[in-house]
Specification:
alpha/beta; 41% helix; globular; 380 residues; single chain
Length: 380
């Protein structure tokens, strides 16, 4: 193993070249042969999915190198099959707008509140940071959603959305509960890292969190605290260092990726310095421009907005009270299409409201929906 492979392994901070050397083609072919024999004649899978599994060249074209790497590390053939089927459905839903009878991906909001008031975020909208929008997800609702997601085949869950998930008093219990589910393969958290503690860091790694994303927008204290209003720069940097150190010391075989993601709000961020600052205590560092999400409903309408949004096909947002939404740019739920506190995930996902939204987007008429006509995100 080379020095760079040793440094990054087994974390997901990997390049395609490095992963390519770690994957044995013979091993992947053997895995595919075994699972094809297992499902011979099955009517439970799309024929296209079976055709992809049956042709190694098509398999490599359809699945990316991280997906292939992940199955090379799995032992159980049933789990490999379920994982590949989940990734197949997510990719088809996202890229080709194919409707499946359940969402491949859920974003669950443990709570709607946040301790920070970042200028690029809807948490600065004072009409939002009050009832009926604020609240904490109850345990019974959380377990209902996760149990059903696991049963129907939802393959990925993110704990986050409009608020800071680590503020939930039972966040460790939530992580542990999801980690016990056989059919949920990816567990992600988006956090501002304010509430990280030593115990919580251990709980994150024990729960096999796939990706822990830290929202951090600068490398200098003054600008960081302007952008992350109410934050303490030194405290957050210390917390991220603690997270990274605990993983490297106590969980050397885990695959939790620690990612720092920033917003270049002022459009003058020195991205090289940003990466150099955060790279020593994380696996991946990225920054992007800000979408106008701080007051979505008063954004200027984009008369040219016409591309269908993949979020209507590949994911479902579940707020703390069970309300379901296409995205969190619509943070006041103008386009909510059901509630899983009194309906099942499938019932909401296949309901008439969401069908109508998809029809409008497919007809390239998203400009007829608020706030789809002004959210700033364009899809191919």
């Amino acid at each position: 193993m080379t020095e760079i492979e040793n440094k990054i392994s087994p974390y997901l901070r990997v390049s395609q070249d490095v992963i390519g050397r770690k994957i044995e083609t013979k091993k992947i072919n053997l895995i595919l042969e075994k699972i094809l024999k297992k499902i011979n004649g099955s009517q439970s899978f799309d024929q296209e999915f079976l055709d992809i599994l049956n042709n190694f060249e098509n398999f490599k074209k359809f699945f990316n190198y991280i997906e292939i790497y992940k199955i090379s590390r799995m032992e159980d053939e049933d789990r490999i099959l379920k994982y590949l089927n989940f990734r197949y459905k997510f990719n088809k839903a996202s890229n080709q707008k194919k409707v499946f009878d359940y969402p491949p991906y859920l974003l669950i909001e443990p709570n709607a509140a946040c301790n920070l008031r970042c200028p690029m975020c809807f948490q600065i909208d004072k009409t939002f940071t009050r009832k009926p929008f604020m609240g904490v997800m109850k345990w019974d609702l959380f377990t209902k959603v996760v149990d059903e997601a696991n049963e129907i085949g939802v393959g990925a869950i993110t704990l986050a959305s409009r608020g800071e998930p680590l503020m939930h008093p039972r966040i460790s219990d939530m992580l542990n509960y999801i980690s016990k589910k056989d059919n949920i393969f990816e567990l992600k958290i988006n956090s501002n890292a304010t509430f990280l503690t030593e115990k919580l860091c251990h709980d994150i790694f024990k729960s096999n969190v796939t990706t822990f994303v830290i929202s951090a927008d600068h490398y200098e204290k003054k600008t960081f605290e302007e952008l992350r209003k109410n934050s303490n720069f030194e405290k957050i940097v210390s917390n991220v260092k603690m997270l990274y150190k605990i993983r490297n010391e106590f969980y050397k075989d885990c695959e939790t990726e620690i990612r720092v993601s920033g917003i270049d709000f002022y459009k003058n961020l020195d991205k090289k310095k940003f990466e150099e600052f955060w790279s020593p205590i994380s696996d991946n560092v990225s920054s992007s421009d800000a979408f106008e999400r701080w007051d979505t409903y008063n954004n200027k309408k984009d008369e040219n907005a016409n591309s269908p949004c993949s979020y209507l096909w590949d994911r479902m947002y579940v707020w703390h009270d069970g309300k379901c939404n296409p995205c969190d740019a619509d943070y006041k739920s103008y386009l909510s299409y059901g509630n899983v506190s009194n309906l099942s995930i499938k019932e909401v996902w296949n309901g008439e409201a969401l069908k109508k939204h998809r029809e409008i987007h497919s007809a390239k008429k998203r400009m007829n929906l608020i706030p789809c006509d002004r959210c700033g995100i364009e899809f191919n």
